[in-house]
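Sequence in, structure out. First:
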Amino acid sequence: MTLTRWSPLTGLATLEVDSLNRMFESAFAPLAPGGWIPAVDIQETADKDVIVKVDLPEMKREDIAVTFEHNVLTIAGERKLSDPGEAATYHRVERGSGAFHRSFTLPSTVDGSRVQAAYRDGVLTITLPRREEARPRQIPVNG
């Protein structure tokens, strides 16, 4: 069991930054021609690693860029609208296409040198391991 000092400001600051990011993304996304915002799930494992899953259907690996710098994970890319061909036309287009850009501020306990990304079945999965020194460890009690 690890004891950590709880600070309401730390949690509040993270919530405020995420809230501002969402506000700006929703405010400016309609201004970008053809822009869209892919759905993202962020979870923390029992080992305190961070897993990010992004829905990117019908995208190619080469159209996706992932960067991690100064504890900020950025995912960007472009989904192109498929050409229905000469014999077909679209009657409705509801799925987003065009360029996108998502950024997330992550805790300083993430080890940026061991970040891994995999793309399979339209889902980009990014694994951000926790730094070894930030993992809880058992301390023997001598006596």
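Second:
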Amino acid sequence: MGPLDVLTVPVLGPIQMVRWLGQKLIETAESEMYDEDRVQGELVELQARYDMDEITEDEYSGSEDVLLERLNAIREAKG
């Protein structure tokens, strides 16, 4: 860290911290969104809710389609 960096920390420090925090939030969201095990768990939970009559067949079908699309996208992205 040079002398100029020390002088700019009071001004740029908070901005850099917000930028760093935003990047970490994006990384966390992406890792959760592309977590195959998480999506499979959501499918199991959805099936259980349907089996217990907590959701209708239409709700189940729509949610299942979305989750299966996410799962396929994850698998395609992994190669």
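Remark: Helices lie at 3-33, 36-51, 57-78.
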